[in-house]
Amino acid sequence: MKKQILTYFLVSISVFSCKKDIAEFEPTNPFEKVVLIENQTFDLDTISVKEIIGEKGTKIYFNREDFDIEDSDKVTLELKEYYSRLELISDNLNTITDKNELLESNGVVSIKFKIGDKEIKLKDGKKLKLKFAQQFRIGDRIFNGVLDSINQISWIQNSETKVSQTALNSVATRRFGVMMFKEKLVSIDSVDYYNRQLEQIQNDLIEDIEKIGYYPLVLVDNYDWINVDKILEVNSRITFELNLNKSDLEQISVFFIYSNLNSFISEYRKYCDLKFIDIPIKNESSMIIVGKKEKELFADKRILTEQSTGRININLKKIDSTELKELLIK
Q1: Among the listed residues 36, 37, 41, 84, the one whose alpha carbon sits nearest the alpha carbon of residue 60
Q2: Superkingdom of the source (predicted)?
Q3: Is residue 196 a part of any domain in this protein?
């Protein structure tokens, strides 16, 4: 009886210690230097209206009257653009929703307007207009990013987003006998309908129709973190626990990578917390495990399938930054 009580007491201490360690956890991204993301700065000074184009093609339409500022206030714009999976991984921008849905990103931007060091916001009821650099796909929606206590991001779908969409003007087309188009303010949920219409027109015409569609003007009031994504239908979900060959690591980072998709999930854990629940499997899925001890890194990579359940043995080997990058991109 005394032995059972002692065992229970030791296990309780271990669990409490693990939870305490996790609460004080400050993870670092082992892939943060794979791609350097520039924080672009634009000096808008006292300009009234301006189109700003980011280095990767994002277009932002600034209208001074939409902000609650003085005429003499000098405004700057800070912009970050992410259009590839490596860029997303470098800044640890998970493609997962607050409902644990796997996303495929079509572009993420972070936008900040400032006067000096003070961030400014839109007036009530006003919207910021922007165009993403890549064409909208069927199923694309707008999501806003939310950071948790350890700076892990998840995405919340903004179903109220409006877009200015190019659409066929059927009345004018019938009247004048030539195909004519117009801009129409529609709900983000309607974009699929209009893009399918444009695709059909493109199939019927010789010339490229890119110039009249696919890049809708998006109207948003929350633009700290904006993501154009579509929710993916996954093959399955798996639950498993990692069994590492090293127990003296300060941090374990686990990255779930999805082949040929602009998608990934990252998890930052302590050695005592290595059970993973409902991890999405989509196409060819893999897992990169990175352990950190002081300045040393240890890593392993595994393919994940629907049968990857239970305890998975991981053989971490010492690795340098170059080898770690190769592990990610191969």
Answers
A1: 41
A2: Bacteria
A3: yes
DSSP state letters, 135-177? PPPTT-EEEEEEE-TTS-EEEEE-TT-EEEEEEE-HHHHHHHS
**Residue 172 vs residue 161, higher pLDDT:** 161
Closest CA to 285 of 260, 268, 266, 310: 260
The arithmetic mean of pLDDT across residues 158-166, rounded, is 86
Q: What angle do CA 280, 256, 102 make, to 5 degrees?
A: 40
Amino acid at 157: Q
Same domain, 91 and 224: yes
In one-letter notation, the amino acid at residue 298 is F
- pLDDT bucket at 15, cuts 50 / 70 / 90: very low
Domain that holds residue 90: 40-160+217-231
How far is Cα 171 from Cα 186, in angstroms, rounded to an integer?
A: 18
Length of the chain counted residue by residue:
330
Strand 236-244 with 153-157, pairing: unpaired
Residue 17 CB neighbours (<10 A): 12
SS (H, E, C) 7-71: HHHHHHHHHHHHHHHHHCCCCCCCCCCCCCCCCEEEEEECCCEEEEECCCCCEEEEEHHHECCCC
Query: How many domains does the chain fold into?
Result: 3
In a domain, 56, yes or no: yes
pLDDT of residue 109: 98
Q: At which of 174, 199, 231 does a domain end?
A: 231
